[in-house]
Amino acid sequence: MSLAATFSAPRDLLSMVEAGTLDAALVSVAPPGRALTEHVLADVDFLLIGPPEWSPPAPDALGAWLDTRPWVSFSVELPVTRQYFTQALNVRFAAPQALVTPDLRAVARAVELGVGATLASRFAAAEALDAGRVRSLLPGAAPILPERWRLVCRVADDDRADLRTLLQAQQHQARQHDART
Description:
With 181 residues, the chain is of the alpha+beta class. 37% of the residues lie in helices and 24% in strands. It contains 6 helices and 7 strands, in the order H-E-E-H-E-H-E-H-E-H-E-E-H. It has helices spanning 10-19, 59-66, 79-88, 104-112, 122-131, 161-180, and strands at residues 24-27, 36-50, 71-73, 97-100, 118-121, 135-136, 144-154. The strands form 2 sheets. Strands 1, 2, 5, 6 and 7 form a 5-stranded antiparallel beta sheet that branches. Strand 3, helix 3 (79-88) and strand 4 (97-100) form a beta-alpha-beta unit. The mean pLDDT is 88.
């Protein structure tokens, strides 16, 4: 099997799959219409993390404090971040963006290096958290805003052997991750 990865906004990826430019896409939004089908891979939760040397304030002051710190993200749009700041921290997100990279592990690594804070997926941050290379900015808090990840392809391609192999590999990886957390 040969794979090529393309990073883009989820809606753009879905349009490329529907047009046949891509065979499949890993996205966090449900596909529109009837031309595409989705296979749920996992519900991914997020953790609020920062560099280990940061000392966050009390939870009721955390939102305002974070808005003065640099932010690392995997998306320019910041849908998860904006929702979290509004709903959980009771402030509008206004932190300066220090780095945007589509790679979740690169986001967690940037936090390790002191670039800023982030909402990181648990799987990307777990090793750094366990080793003390990043810290939870809300210790003891429940994971944040689970996001459903899906593998999406065209309905007409749903029975292709190569896409079935990809789906099985992704589902296997998701099960292994769930068993570790």
